[in-house]
């Protein structure tokens, strides 16, 4: 019986999603990409999920593309005519950057071991990244003669800035955890044994707030980063009008004034 490539585990309002192909360091095969896409769509549609933690099974977060599949043409991205290869990307791995860009549920990457090539880009698609002291990142596409075909050229500069993204992509240098912290790739570095706990603690800190406010705050921040000030203010006003008419907003105010823990109902 084949093992599931994606594992999910619920802990309250937090969903942990694990890339589960440790034999390939969780390479982004078509099966794994499709499974991850399904899991994230389901999480985003489930309004009782307030945060997702994404991590990898085994010794690495994600090794990116499978080099053997690249050599042997076992993936539509790596075989056929140039047009067929383009279609392989459009219909394959590029579904992930499109999905991440429209997710309302926050996603935290707990980056264990290495995040290489498309694995580095996958981490950048997440909203927050936590690294272990032995974590390594590399935007290493040119080592195998490629460019970033998975959306990393759009995501990486938004995380680290264009000059650092260019340095990473053009040198293919491997960054250790402290370098990743200095670049802004991760916001926290902890010991390997504490990585998942740190990511889950952050997720539960997020999930402690009103579910609708969490999603609208994420959406507002992302959209405001792409539009001008006037449009951002208009969007903020419209979202504020939505949340101020929810039971959870009223409960938040009451709980604060009464010095008690809030009991949110998700509406």
From TrEMBL:
Pfam families: ECH_1
Gene3D superfamilies tied to this protein: 2-enoyl-CoA Hydratase, Chain A, domain 1, Lyase 2-enoyl-coa Hydratase, Chain A, domain 2
GO molecular function, one term: enoyl-CoA hydratase activity
Keyword Lyase: yes
EC category name: lyase
Keywords associated with the record: Lyase
Protein's recorded name: Enoyl-CoA hydratase
Species in which this protein is naturally found: Paracoccus denitrificans (strain Pd 1222)
The organism's taxonomic lineage, starting at the top: Bacteria, Pseudomonadati, Pseudomonadota, Alphaproteobacteria, Rhodobacterales
